[in-house]
Amino acid sequence: TMSQEFGISKRQIERIVKRVANRAAITKPVTPHVLRHTFSVNCLKRGITTRTLQYLLGHDHITTTEIYMNLSPEDAIREFQSKW
């Protein structure tokens, strides 16, 4: 767990993220999970393979990583047009 590996609790991480978001005047809810999700989607949009992302996120099963693969219609159109 995070506490065992880094000596910091989940709650402490949540507080840090909230404090930084407040300082940055971010009005939308920001949580560690939101940051992780944003990181994952951005990696996939930049061409990072699902297997590499699986490793980076520490997922045991690729199906967990594939949750982040939902592309918007705009992304699908952009990719299609770039290939044709």
Characterise the protein shown here.
- The protein has 84 residues and is an all-alpha fold.
- The chain folds into two domains: 1-30; 33-84.
- Helices cover 67% and strands 0% of the residues.
- It has six helices and no strands.
- The longest helix has 14 residues, at 10-23.
- It is flat and about 50 Å long.
- The protein starts with a helix and ends with a helix.
Coarse shape: flat
User: Low-confidence runs (pLDDT<50, min 5 residues)?
Assistant: none
Percentage beta strand: under 5%
Individual helix count: 6
Structural class: mainly alpha
List the helices and strands in order: HHHHHH
Compact overview of the structure:
With 84 residues, this protein is mostly helical. Helices cover 67% and strands 0% of the residues.
Features of this protein?
mainly alpha, 6 helices, 2 domains, 84 residues, flat
Structural topology:
Layout: H1 2-6, H2 10-23, H3 32-45, H4 50-57, H5 62-65, H6 73-83
